[in-house]
Amino acid sequence: CYRENILKTAKALVEDTKLLVSGAASSQDKLAQAAQSSANTITQLAEVVKLGAASLGSDDPETQVVLINAIKDVAKALSDLIGATKGAASKPADDPSMYQLKGAAKVMVTNVTSLLKTVKAVEDEATRGTRALEATIEYIKQELTVFQSSEVPEKTSSPEESIRMTKGITMATAKAVAAGNSCRQEDVIATANLSRKAVADMLTACKQASYHPDVSAEVRERALRFGTECTLGYLELLEHVLLV
Known about the structure:
Blueprint: H1 2-23, H2 28-55, H3 61-88, H4 96-122, H5 128-148, H6 159-182, H7 185-210, H8 217-243
Helix pairs in contact: 1-2, 1-3, 1-4, 2-3, 3-4, 3-5, 3-7, 4-5, 5-7, 5-8, 6-7, 6-8, 7-8
């Protein structure tokens, strides 16, 4: 029942996405309508996903987290898409903002597809861990793209904060190795959830610290490079666990 409702609402959201993209080239009224419609649809989708997560029961909290993370990714992608649509409104087809809009729309569809795959996998216990890991790998890749962009963080933090956040990577690495050895679905799901948070926190802290007023351009470049290398190394580890 929940799966059918999620599928139906997700399809409606994909249609809203198409309207948003086409709305950038039309009137402000049409754009506003498309934005409002997508906001209503994402709210409905979040509700049915939460009901679906609740139906799993409290004895499987890690899988509930996987579902909630999937809808959070879709909501974030929609927010970015609406922002990109506003930026591209009334611009010519070859304007850079139009390429950003197409990129945001692609991420949006990728995340909706990922959500649907996750919902399907939840019904099959044998594939839950694999799917959770695949979704985490996709999420980390998207976070790395944001990290590598030229966008300056809204706030800065101390280098100490960045160092503190690397401890999460160490813990998640140990968990990933253990999951690779045990091959138990629950271990793999827990690894996926922990890895997602650990890497995202590290990337945020690293970028914020690299833009600290006391940091030189050379040190910033090195910090950003090492943040990227750390993430790529961790992705490689997760790919190995997936293979196992």
